[in-house]
Amino acid sequence: MSTTSLPPETAKSRRIFRHLPWLAVFGPGLVVMLADTDVGSIITAGQSGVQWGYKLLLPQFILIPVLYIVQELTVRLGIFTGKGHGELIREAFGPRWAWVSAAGLAVATIGALLTEFSGVAGVGDLFGIPHYVSLPMAAIALLAVVLTGSYRRVERAAMVVGLFELAFFFVAWAARPDLAHIAMQSIHVPVLNPNYEYLVAANIGAVIMPWMVFYQQSAVADKKLKESHFRAARWDTAIGAVVTQLVMAAVLIAAAASIRPHMPQASLSTVGQMSQAMTPYLGAETGRVIFSLGVLGAGMVAAIVASLALAWGLGEVSGYRRSLEFHPLKAKWFYGVYTVCVIGGAAAVGLAPNLVSLNVGVQVMNALLLPIVLGFLVRLAMVTLPEAQRLKGKYMWLVVVVCAITCAFGVLGGIGGLFIG
């Protein structure tokens, strides 16, 4: 049907999408990046600001190209193979290695869900809502979003929820940071201090997580993006990488400017502790509401992404039906895994609230898993892609070096910090 025979609104919409193809492609990159700034990442950025001021600010920006390089490979693999991460590992390296990758994904997902629901519970505490109310409400909302049988609906809902994270920019602005002090501290870093290295590892683990790799590649495949969408999908990923690291930087700046000068020894292991320490300097009521919106946006979108990543990943490895385009009754295992993740995460935090203290430790665990995650990803890009898109030449060596350095900082910093602790 030509656009001239369509209603004016429909014809105009089609012309817009023809000239701006990224409007149709936009989604997987931004969603996974908004999920990247999850509750554990926020806690990690807050602790970084309190313990070290602005000395961990520069790594936030250094990690932008690292994050893009990693996630761009998932886009490339998803578009040019049409398959998810677990499925490709199974085909290229066999079922045993596929289950190894799925096991790492499961561990990371469990850790993520504990941090996300701890954030929801912490926000409820700020407003006097008991855990037996806030956690079931969050679980019901998350189930309602996904049990629609439509990837596009899930993607749109996740983007709307995740945009609440932009509230952290207001929090950073309201903290009135000293720009000269930021510039001076950010370039004088104690790189050989084991405690500093431990938080560097935590920040690396807060940026590159196993479930992000599985989610974005599977989402690209589920959305059925084609070769013609590749450029727009890369822009989607690049914009998301910048946004997520700016959010991390905003949280770090807010904590360094508002908490460190008054409470340098503050222990910020929970969302409630961060809010109570930060909001008095931002205005008690306004600060609490804005901070809570940011945490809820971060926690809810990350819970969706991490749970779906595990449901996709296990399906790709074991072979059960896995797509948001299937009705729940036609993909029972897929939706069942998602449901178990959501309900199990909410129940675990409700029954054992002391688990919220694991926030930074979960990020360090992600850093320790990096050699497995990035090793599989880079190797897949070398052997499974069509010749024209295969990772090779100078760019291959750039990717290998960047991933090796990232793994080294994450693993050595995490192990060193654990021994010091």
Quick structural gist:
The chain has 421 residues and is an all-alpha fold.
Tags for this model:
single chain; 421 residues; mainly alpha; Amino acid/polyamine transporter I; 20 helices; 0% strand; disordered N terminus
Q: Secondary structure elements and their pairing?
A:
Blueprint: H1 8-19, H2 22-25, H3 28-36, H4 39-52, H5 57-81, H6 85-93, H7 95-126, H8 131-146, H9 151-162, H10 167-174, H11 179-186, H12 194-207, H13 210-222, H14 230-258, H15 271-278, H16 284-318, H17 332-351, H18 359-368, H19 370-383, H20 393-420
What would you say this structure looks like, in words?
This protein has 20 helices and no strands. It is an all-alpha fold. It has a single domain, classed as Amino acid/polyamine transporter I, CATH 1.20.1740.10.
